[in-house]
Amino acid sequence: MNYTIRPAGAGDYPRIMEIWASAVKATHDFLAPSDFDLFQVLIPEEFLPHLDAFVVTDENGTLQAFFGTSEDNLEMLFVEDASRGKGIGKIAIAYVLDVLQVYKVDVNEQNQQALEFYRARGYVQTGRSERDGMGKAYPLLHLHYLHKTEER
């Protein structure tokens, strides 16, 4: 399957939020339902418009994943749950590193799947915060990409 990465537009937001919801339900079992509802509002209204956001589409033009960066940090990367394990995340990370040259990412400490994914791509932990960027009690691990690996 061939995938394409392109900048995201406001017209992509409904599909982006479908992807986000499916990915979060599969990987963020620690997230309180009230916070799920809050982020579902904040992401399209407050976060995405302020990020350099991109979508990953399949050969049919269907959005399978999205990611967003700000300055030198990967702020979010989500892959449709049904599309996980197909290399889409690797394609997105290669773009983030090689094209955007963004090397930092914060990962929820409770999200072991994401932590393993980033570590397998060559990221190492450089710090930890007890709370997320909104002050909520979701500890973050600060990761930095230090070296190239054969397989991202």
Structure write-up:
This protein has 152 residues and is of the alpha+beta class. It has one domain (4-145): Aminopeptidase (3-Layer(aba) Sandwich). 33% of the residues lie in helices and 28% in strands. The chain has helices spanning 13-27, 33-47, 88-98, 112-120, and strands at 4-7, 52-57, 63-70, 73-79, 104-108, 123-129, 140-145. A hairpin with a 2-residue loop joins strand 3 and strand 4 (73-79). Helix 1 (13-27) runs antiparallel to helix 2 (33-47). The radius of gyration is 15 Å and the shape is globular.
Structural class: alpha+beta
Specify the CATH architecture: 3-Layer(aba) Sandwich
Main sheet characteristics: 7 strands, mixed
SS summary, helix count: 4
Rg, rounded, reads 15 Å
Tell me roughly what share of residues is in helical segments.
Answer: 25-40%
Supply the CATH superfamily name. Gcn5-related N-acetyltransferase (GNAT)
**Stretches with pLDDT under 50, minimum 5 residues:** none
Mean pLDDT: 92
Number of domains: 1
Q: Please identify the oligomeric state.
A: single chain
**Which topology does CATH recognise?**
Aminopeptidase
Distance between the termini: 17 Å
- Element-level helix/strand string: EHHEEEHEHEE
Going across the biggest sheet, name each strand in turn: 1-2-3-4-5-7-6
Number of strands: 7
